[in-house]
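Title: Prediction job returns without error message
Component: structure pipeline
Severity: low
Priority: P3
Assignee: unassigned

Description:
Job completed but the reporter wants confirmation the result is attached to the right record. Sequence as submitted:
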Amino acid sequence: MRHYCARQRLPDGRWDFCCGGHPVGYCAPYKEWTKEELDRWGFHEDCPSIQKEKQFKDKHHDCGHETEKEAQECYKQYVLDHVLYFGESSNSQHKCRICGEWTPRYAMLETQMFDLCEKHCNRESVDQLYKAPSDLWIS
């Protein structure tokens, strides 16, 4: 079981979002994969998750955050950039979480699903609905 949470680091008192005491998401510095690492782990350079890391490499940092909430928000932005998926059901409709209009569209983010109409099925709407994680346990 892995524990994700914001942690205050010593000695500067800044905050990072961490798993097992190690910064994750954008709180971890960006590192380019070497050919040897790709081969060892069985990845290819054109792997979608590796391409996404490259796309957002400028958001990575190692300077920490002023507050715990800022570190949590940083990880939220990482999840929105890397995990957000939009889809459409072929056989059901639900009310939009924002306006109540019936829709087959939805957004998935980790284990959460948000029914959203065509107008609201976008990153900005999900950003409003998805709360920054404070404490995650993942097995």
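Comment from assignee: result matches the submitted record. DSSP finds four helices and nine strands in the chain.
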